Amino acid sequence: MADELKPDLELDLKGLLCPLPMVRVSQNITKVAVGGIIKATASDPGSMADIPSWARTTGNEVVKTERDGKNFVFYVKRLK
After folding, report:
1. What is the end-to-end Cα distance of the chain in Å, rounded?
2. Rounded-to-integer distance, Cα 45 and Cα 35, Å
3. What is the pTM of this model?
4. Based on the structure, what is the number of domains in the chain?
5. Model confidence pLDDT, tens digit, residues 11-29
6. Active site amino acids
């Protein structure tokens, strides 16, 4: 399944510090349809806690995380 993830929206959040990566994902989640995927790339290590926590509390899902060098990549699925 991981290889089949095709994001509907990609966000470059590199250089933004906590909590801005999570805020930007939150601001953009309604730009994708329910079931859609946002690919968010952040450089702040705090995003490793913030984005999954935000997803759980808002009823969305982080379906995959990756490490790309110094960056953290999140695939967030809109569930509602």
Report:
1. 21
2. 27
3. 0.92
4. 1
5. 999 999 999 999 999 999 9
6. 18
